[in-house]
Amino acid sequence: MPVKNTNYSVIYSDDDFIVLNKKSGILIAADRYNEDAPRLDLMAQEEFGKLYAVHRIDKDTSGLIIYARTLEAQRELSMQFEKREVQKTYHALVYGHPLWETLDVDLPLQPDGDSRHRTVVNKKFGKPSFTSFRLIGTCGPYSWIEAKPKTGRTHQIRVHLAEKGLSIVCDPLYSGNQKPVRLSEIKKKWNGDEYEERPLLSRLALHAYKIEIKHPKTGEAVSFTAPYPKDMDATRKQLAKIFGVDPLA
């Protein structure tokens, strides 16, 4: 019996392209800083044969990634991303409470802008970068936020939020606060063992939730959503139970 790959699940596949839901911590293609890190394209090629990248998401982000299966599909899909015709929706859990319901951030970004290879705002050398944010709701110390990036810069959502004073839970690069989400800290009558407790979530709380493209062969509009990974979903359920706010409701 074949071993089920736990690093990704298949959301959709046909002869032209595939849509995968990847877990956090997996690169989607070769990385010059970390040549030996696990790579999604190499894992998925064992199942699907040769794959061609058409866009990127951060290693630490979970969720939707598309690969083309032919050079024609790669060309067509890459053009859609380049022309900003693709609709992308992300969900993030952040610390604190924004004072806005919706926010558009238009700040030029320069990747690899400091010694930690972080993306920085640079008005002179940065490339145009635009993200629309919407507050889904607040839950105790946290808030759920929907992000729709119009451009595809490295770490774009993370930097645009950080520039507005909000950091995504457990962001290793742009947040000063690395505290994982623990049930004991959000539930009033928690009676577990604090030494045995495992965090609900201890990695970057950013998920590529939905993507809308035109099919590379037929041109028809198609849309895909990726279920939350186990850790993010457990966090969602607990926060919804306690605070009555559910980003998937």
UniProtKB/TrEMBL annotation:
Pfam families: PseudoU_synth_2
List of catalytic residues: D58
GO MF: catalytic activity, acting on RNA; pseudouridine synthase activity; RNA binding
EC number: 5.4.99.-
Catalysed reactions listed for this entry: a uridine in RNA = a pseudouridine in RNA
InterPro entries found in the cross-reference section: PsdUridine_synth_cat_dom_sf, PsdUridine_synth_RluC/D, PsdUridine_synth_RsuA/RluA, RluA_PseudoU_synthase
Record field: transmembrane: none
Known role: Responsible for synthesis of pseudouridine from uracil.
Entry protein name: Pseudouridine synthase
